[in-house]
């Protein structure tokens, strides 16, 4: 499949992002300390951001780094340090017999099925969208404009729904954290 | 010319497999949440790959919404983890078995 038609920088970008993604993902599973697992997760997220840039999704790459690496992983680290879960869970113990072997078989079957499905359709995946009349997705500032136009016109209802979702999530998180504290205070009194 | 979409799709499938293996085997609720993020990122990568191949910006808009939902999910999920940890000083999902029938 590797022909001379593909540009070297594109192949390089793919290989670098693939290495970052796979090494980081395996690190999340293999590392004992939850803090190190969160740092491996950052490596994977940066790899995905690299893949986004390589596929002309510039806006999403920036959002990926700001939201995931900047907010979600920091939230993970905050909770890990808040709880003091430095004592890692026992990886060696396997309460359900054969759980890991079954999980590995299931995962291999799933990946194999997906790849076989791709290969059986000659690696062709769908038809080019009619709505864009065949123009490639824009890069740079044009990409931001294109995503913004899509979000605020075609997907406006979904966008408004996410606003409600975020409010509900914030209220829920505050409620989860608050109720416990009030009960503690009642216990002290 | 950019590399074929199939390369990125296979990469996303591998990432999804690694994430789901962790989801099925690990016991700590925090690690399970991290594996969930891996799954979401694998799907996001697939969305962006199809957005490039099919030249449809809708794929990138979908990834934007997935990120918002992931942020909300992590906020509430970690709140629940903190609450559970306060009650029983453990984040192991094996010990949460009161609702077993």
The CATH topology of the domain at 7-91 in chain A comes to Four Helix Bundle (Hemerythrin (Met), subunit A)
Structural class estimated from helices and strands of chain B: mainly alpha
Helical amount among residues of chain A, as a percent range?
A: over 70%
- Please state the overall shape of chain A, judged from the principal axes of the Cα atoms: globular
Give the ordered list of helices and strands of chain A: HHHHHH
Strand content of chain B: under 5%
CA(first)-CA(last) distance of chain B: 57 Å
**Overall pLDDT level of chain B:** 88
Instruction: Using the 3D structure, state the CATH architecture of chain B.
Output: Orthogonal Bundle
CATH topology of chain B, what is it called?
Helix Hairpins
Overall description:
The complex is a heterodimer of chains A (189) and B (101). With 189 residues, chain A is mainly alpha-helical. Chain A is built from 6 helices and no strands. In chain A, helix 1 packs antiparallel against helix 2, helix 2 runs antiparallel to helix 3 and helix 5 packs across helix 6. The longest helix of chain A has 33 residues. Chain A is globular and about 50 Å long. The N and C termini of chain A lie far apart (72 Å). The mean pLDDT of chain A is 83. Chain B has a single domain, classed as Helix Hairpins (Orthogonal Bundle), CATH 1.10.287. The longest helix of chain B is centred in the last third of the chain and has 31 residues. The radius of gyration of chain B is 17 Å and the shape is elongated. The model of chain B has no long low-confidence stretch (mean pLDDT 88). At the A-B interface, helix 1, helix 2, helix 3, helix 4 and helix 5 of A face helix 1, helix 2 and helix 3 of B.
Kindly summarize this structure in a few lines:
The complex is a heterodimer of chains A (189) and B (101). Chain A has 189 residues and is an all-alpha fold. Chain A is 74% helix and 0% strand.
Looking at this protein, list some descriptive labels.
heterodimer; A: 189 residues; mainly alpha; Four Helix Bundle (Hemerythrin (Met), subunit A); 6 helices; globular; B: 101 residues; Helix Hairpins; elongated
